[in-house]
């Protein structure tokens, strides 16, 4: 190279040019250039090696994925795929795939919940990609059939990049077939389990219905003392078995997550206390000191699932009674706790007993399914071992936790804390006092101040005065609270309603106490009883539900029931009402018989051969037969009633059939027959009809004439406002507002036994879209006209009340 350079210089500068002047520098420069070239070649090779290594690594990474991964763009479609793609979809190369398909989406299978395949007109559609990219928060799945016809479920993930101003996608398909199949199997298993539980319930309850019903009938027949005892034992055993069935059904619902809270407005002083007082007879039987304390500072209206709260308390109290020995103690306490949120109220529920207690090592597992404190517990005390599990799950459903403290051999305390929303109660205790004020008689009894404090908590109007002051006044028919038993008789003679708060009264004085006196024996233990005492004296003491021995109901009834014992039982029950039903032994017979005869009521068993009750009901409704149909079923799963109503049934009675439930249904649909002729009611409401209704209300509620007058005056005031509001709603053609007002009006009318107008209100309240609109407004006008007719006779009615005997 040097020689070539010299020759060129000589040609340009002449032969005599002296190279020595810069030869050394040139040599160095040339060597630097040569070295730079060498380094460049070395660096280039290193970069080539690095790129090759990265390509191999990415290729290996791309192909080592367990998922199907491929890249694509909007112009070329699929640009690269991993080995899993070929393995999954049964292609040998990308070119082979592209020869047969423009888009992988052509292999998609149409199915609800999955990405859809493209239309035949646009097989290269990228709509599925847009759906995934635009909804990243959702889980997207594709059902794809490969070349061999095998279906696979994929979870679809797509990442979008921009290269050279063109969108570039990386698609990741995750095989979730096994997971989806397991999920589907679990859902199928759950359905089978629910069906099994329903069938098991039916199979157990069907014969139990016969035992339960005939025992009821037997107890109402002439029996000697020993026979009465035997029938009582049969009844108790029946209830025990049904409780076990209910435990299993509840556990099944909770386990499957299908149990939901049904929040309603609840008065804790009446509803929760009713659930607790059920156990008083059993406690008395075992000579157990059973005390109920409901904090008087609790609000009168709380939004809660009354059934589920009562169920927890029932389970806890049942256990306490089961494990507490004779002469032991059980305390139920419902206390109000501090709460910073004014819209809520926090309550602590606790059940404490002096029973057998629980060993410390057993406490951790006590809330697990089918676990009891000791293996001998089931043998000695019975039970399913599910009560505490169910209670703990229900507490969790309400955002709480069931806890326990216990000492073996000394007793246990189960407790939980729940916050409830407060609600506005329109009918508080203070508003229900028919003849205020309440008179609180002066006394040195230590309970006096506590009672006065409770009356303040309940916001009641009361006056403190001496016995002499009250007796010398002309006041009558008030509630009077005394602390001395000798005051009771004079107060009763002065026509007062008497509450006696006195401990240690003695058995002799208790026996001599007038039955009209409400005796609170242990006020310090459960002062909330005062609330119930005032409530009961204001209306009428609670009585056991008694079905009339004989009542002539005019009904043509069809019974569809396949179990012969149940047919005999229902027939016996209906004989009390002089009713002789027709029987069908399956749904098909019921449909035929209902077409041949006009029945007033059909009692339809659900599980029957040939044609079940639901399908039979559907057929009857399709035939245009609108006879009321009441489901008779041993299926006790939640949601059954709603399901039966949705298929066209009108009501529901659970087996074993309770005579009172049957009576309620019969009376309801007997009254409905009378409702059919309601349009014939005269638009002038006769005075004698008004007074007859009020006389019935007086007899039913045990009112005297003065209270009845006050109640009628209150009715006049309330209905004046309602008539104005309904009239305004009619002018706006606001049907829903009219229906809402009819709800409140119906309750007022029922309390005064003005049942014919109440029936009209009920018909309007529950009318649906099938109810003729003109008929709706005509009936509304009729209700208003009749109410105005009563208003026009107000003075005559009040005069007539004064002469009622």
UniProtKB/TrEMBL annotation:
Q: Where is the HPt domain?
A: 704-801
Where in the sequence is 4-aspartylphosphate found?
605
A GO MF label: phosphorelay sensor kinase activity
Q: What is its main location?
A: membrane
* Phosphohistidine: residues bearing it: 743
EC number(s) on file: 2.7.13.3
Q: Which InterPro entries match?
A: CheY-like_superfamily, HATPase_C_sf, HATPase_dom, His_kinase_dom, HisK_dim/P_dom, HisK_dim/P_sf, HPT_dom_sf, Sig_transdc_His_kin-like_C
> Does the entry feature the keyword Phosphoprotein, yes or no?
yes
PROSITE patterns from the entry?
HIS_KIN, HPT, RESPONSE_REGULATORY
Query: Short name of one Pfam family for this protein?
Result: HATPase_c
Q: Which residues form the Response regulatory domain?
A: 556-670
Catalytic reaction list: ATP + protein L-histidine = ADP + protein N-phospho-L-histidine
Q: What GO cellular component is one of the record's annotations?
A: plasma membrane
Q: Where in the cell is it found?
A: Cell membrane
Keyword annotations for this protein, in alphabetical order, are:
ATP-binding, Cell membrane, Kinase, Membrane, Nucleotide-binding, Phosphoprotein, Transferase, Transmembrane, Transmembrane helix, Two-component regulatory system
Domain of life, source organism: Bacteria
Q: PANTHER family, from UniProt?
A: HYBRID SIGNAL TRANSDUCTION HISTIDINE KINASE J (PTHR45339)
Q: What is this protein called?
A: Sensory/regulatory protein RpfC
Organism classification = Bacteria, Pseudomonadati, Campylobacterota, Epsilonproteobacteria, Campylobacterales
């Amino acid at each position: 190279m040097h020689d070539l350079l010299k020759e060129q210089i000589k040609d340009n500068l002449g032969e005599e040019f002296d190279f020595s002047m810069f030869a050394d520098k040139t040599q160095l420069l040339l060597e630097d250039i040569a070295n730079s070239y060498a380094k460049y070649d070395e660096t280039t090779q290193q970069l080539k090696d690095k790129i090759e290594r990265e390509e191999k690594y990415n290729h290996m990474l791309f192909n080592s994925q367990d998922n199907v991964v491929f890249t694509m763009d909007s112009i070329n479609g699929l640009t690269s795929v991993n080995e899993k793609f070929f393995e999954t979809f049964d292609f040998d190369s990308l070119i082979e795939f592209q020869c047969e398909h423009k888009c992988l989406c052509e292999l998609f299978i149409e199915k609800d919940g999955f990405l859809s395949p493209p239309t035949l007109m646009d097989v290269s559609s990228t709509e599925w990609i847009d759906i995934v990219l635009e909804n990243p928060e959702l889980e997207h799945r594709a059902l794809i059939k490969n070349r061999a016809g095998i279906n696979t479920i994929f979870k679809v993930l797509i990442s979008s990049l921009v290269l050279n101003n063109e969108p570039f996608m990386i698609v990741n398909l995750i095989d979730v077939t096994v997971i989806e199949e397991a999920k589907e199997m679990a859902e199928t298993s759950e359905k089978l389990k629910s069906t099994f539980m329903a069938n098991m319930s039916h199979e157990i309850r069907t014969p139990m219905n016969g035992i339960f019903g005939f025992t009821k009938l037997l107890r109402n027949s002439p029996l000697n003392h020993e026979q009465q005892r035997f029938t009582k034992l049969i009844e108790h055993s029946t209830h025990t078995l049904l409780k076990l069935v209910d435990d299993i059904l509840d556990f099944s619902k909770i386990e499957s997550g299908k149990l939901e809270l049904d929040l309603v407005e609840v008065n804790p002083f009446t509803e929760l206390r009713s659930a607790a007082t059920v156990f008083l007879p059993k406690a008395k039987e075992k000579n157990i000191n059973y005390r109920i304390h409901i904090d008087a500072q609790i609000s009168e209206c709380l939004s809660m699932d009354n059934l589920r709260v009562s169920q927890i308390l029932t389970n806890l109290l049942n256990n306490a009674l089961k494990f507490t020995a004779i002469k032991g103690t059980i305390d139920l306490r419902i206390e109000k706790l501090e709460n910073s949120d004014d819209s809520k109220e926090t309550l602590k529920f606790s059940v404490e007993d002096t029973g057998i207690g629980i060993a410390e090592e057993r406490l951790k597992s006590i809330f697990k399914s089918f676990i009891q404190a000791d293996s001998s517990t089931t043998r000695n005390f019975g039970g399913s071992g599910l009560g505490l599990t169910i209670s703990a799950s229900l507490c969790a459903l309400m955002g709480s936790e069931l806890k326990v403290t216990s000492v073996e051999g000394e007793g246990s305390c189960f407790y939980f804390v729940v916050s409830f929303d407060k609600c506005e109660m329109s009918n508080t205790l203070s508003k229900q006092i028919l003849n205020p004020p309440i008179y609180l008689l002066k006394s040195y009894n230590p309970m006096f101040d506590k009672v006065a404090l409770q009356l303040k908590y309940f916001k009641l109007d009361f006056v403190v005065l001496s016995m002499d002051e009250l007796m010398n006044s002309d006041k009558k028919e008030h509630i009077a609270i005394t602390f001395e038993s000798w005051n009771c008789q004079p107060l009763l003679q002065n026509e007062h309603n008497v509450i006696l708060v006195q401990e240690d009264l003695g058995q002799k004085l208790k026996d001599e106490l007038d039955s009209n006196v409400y005796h609170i024996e242990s006020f310090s233990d459960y002062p909330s009883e005062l609330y119930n005492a005032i409530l009961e004296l204001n209306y009428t003491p609670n009585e056991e539900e008694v079905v009339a021995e004989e009542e002539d109901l005019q009904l043509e009834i069809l019974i569809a029931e396949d179990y012969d014992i149940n047919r005999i039982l229902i027939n016996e029950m209906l004989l009390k009402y002089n009713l002789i039903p027709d029987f069908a032994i399956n749904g098909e017979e019921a449909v035929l018989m209902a077409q041949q005869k006009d029945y007033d009521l059909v009692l339809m068993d659900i599980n029957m051969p040939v044609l079940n009750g639901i399908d039979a009901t559907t057929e009857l409704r399709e035939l245009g037969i609108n006879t009321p149909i009441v489901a008779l079923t041993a299926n006790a799963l939640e949601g059954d009633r709603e399901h039966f109503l949705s298929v066209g049934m009108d009501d529901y009675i659970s087996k074993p059939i309770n005579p009172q439930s049957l009576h309620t249904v019969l009376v309801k649909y007997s009254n409905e027959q009378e409702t059919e002729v309601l349009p014939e009611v005269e638009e002038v409401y006769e005075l004698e009809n008004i007074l007859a209704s009020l006389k019935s209300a007086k007899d039913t509620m045990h009112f005297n004439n003065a209270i009845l007058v006050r109640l009628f005056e209150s009715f006049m005031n309330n209905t004046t406002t309602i008539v104005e509001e309904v009239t305004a709603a009619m002018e706006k053609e606001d049907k829903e507002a009219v229906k809402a007002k009819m709800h409140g009006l119906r309750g007022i009318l029922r309390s005064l036994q003005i049942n014919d107008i109440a029936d009209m209100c009920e018909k309007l309240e529950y009318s649906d879209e099938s109810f003729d609109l003109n008929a709706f407004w005509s009936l509304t006008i009729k209700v208003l006209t009749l109410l105005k007719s009563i208003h026009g006779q107000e003075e005559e009615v009040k005069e007539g009340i004064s002469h009622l005997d």
